[in-house]
Amino acid sequence: MTKESRDAYERIKHELTNAPVLLLPDFELPFKLYIDAACSQGLGAALHHRQIVDGEPREGVICYISRQLKDLEARYGATQTEFLCLVWALEDLHYYLEGAVFEFHTDCTALKSLLNMKTTNRHMLRWPIAIQEYRGNMTIIYKEESGTLDRGNTDSEETETPILGISSSELHNEFFSAVPKSYANPKKCGILLQLLQQKYRSPELESQLEEPWLRAYKDNMFFHIDGLLYHRERHTSALTVVDRDNIPLILQECHDCPYMGHMSEDRTKERVASTAWWTNWEQELSEYINTCERCQKGK
Q: Is residue 153 a part of any domain in this protein?
């Protein structure tokens, strides 16, 4: 790189990371989130604001974020990489976007199908869950509506295609169809569903709720979307399971299957925590791994 090229690069970097391009956030105003993903390379996002500067409305940048793709992520298709970029950006910028109204801009129109899909893919299982808490405040604008994004690293004509290059999960559609039916048992979570569907708290119903459901409900750890009940902790949400017949399948999926490779208890715990939740799951997981024949032989 010549001195002129280096100086030009440093000048552009300075202009992009200082006023007037860079703005301080105003949490009373809506945000704009722009993302772009380069397959086999990396993820990038920019958070924007439209503010009044020197008496005139102007859109500026609050912050930029980026990261490289991991080895496994580099094998994803273009649409899956874009979906990953959205989930990563929402989680990384949660301190700006939680509870805020914002627009999400993308140049990947095929992403529309994934945002409304109930995927059974093990890698993508938590992605729709991760964005649900933002959906009520998020307006999605695709390229043909905004005209602001450069497609750059995406195909000129992207079509909706089947998911390729990612190992499939054993959690089939029958599993997700059976889970809502198990919620009908009032002793387990029927009362909880009634509480979540009401606008105001009901002490009478709360008194009928058993622990640990009651404690988790009061801590606002449950939410109900599309017939499925989810349990959240910090920035992770997991499907709530009450039918014990489904638990062995989840444990096998998160520990025994070939692409999990009988991971350690801590690693398996991370996988289960982002997939499903049920009462006393950590103790049951520990017992399951301690009685796993293959794991015991490997010690």
A: no
Q: Is 10 buried (19+), middle (13-18) or exposed (0-12) by CB count in 10 A?
A: exposed
Domain that holds residue 87: 14-146
- Per DSSP, the residues of 200-221 read S--HHHHTTPPTTHHHHHHTT-
By CB atoms closer than 10 A (0-12, 13-18, 19+), residue 207 is: exposed
The answer as to whether 117 is a domain residue is: yes
Helix (H) or strand (E) holding 103: strand 102-106
Q: Strand, helix or coil at 233?
A: strand
Does this model's pTM top 0.70? My answer is no
Distances (CA, A) of 278 to 149, 197, 232, 272: 42, 21, 12, 10
Last residue of a domain, one of 146, 162, 195: 146
Distance CA 131, CA 94 (A): 11
Residue-wise pLDDT for 81-105, tens only, equals 888 888 889 889 988 988 888 888 8
Which residue in this structure is represented by tokens 């119903």?
205
72 and 128 inside one domain: yes
**DSSP H helices in 3-142:** 3-16, 78-92, 94-97, 111-115, 127-135
